[in-house]
Amino acid sequence: MKTRLLRAIVAVVLALIFASYLQPDFVVDLANRIYLCF
């Protein structure tokens, strides 16, 4: 069960990294929004 959850998390992270290469403006905007919360 743990390995399945870990694999799902890794897959989501890799998908987000891949999406960030496709839309870099979105990632920069998201990072700025997170940074402004602090």
Give the SSE map.
Layout: H1 2-22, H2 24-36
Helix pairs in contact: 1-2
How is this structure best described in words?
With 38 residues, this protein is mainly alpha-helical. It has one domain (1-37). Helices cover 89% and strands 0% of the residues. It is built from 2 helices and no strands. It has helices at residues 2-22, 24-36. The radius of gyration is 13 Å and the shape is flat.
Order of helices and strands: HH
What is the count of helical runs?
2
Mean pLDDT, to the nearest integer, reads 88
Looking at how many chains there are and whether they match, the oligomeric state comes to single chain
Instruction: Please report the distance between the alpha carbons of the first and last residues.
Output: 35 Å
- From the helix content, strand content and strand pairing, which structural class follows? mainly alpha
Q: State the major sheet.
A: none
The geometry reads as flat
Helical content, roughly? over 70%
Rg over CA atoms: 13 Å
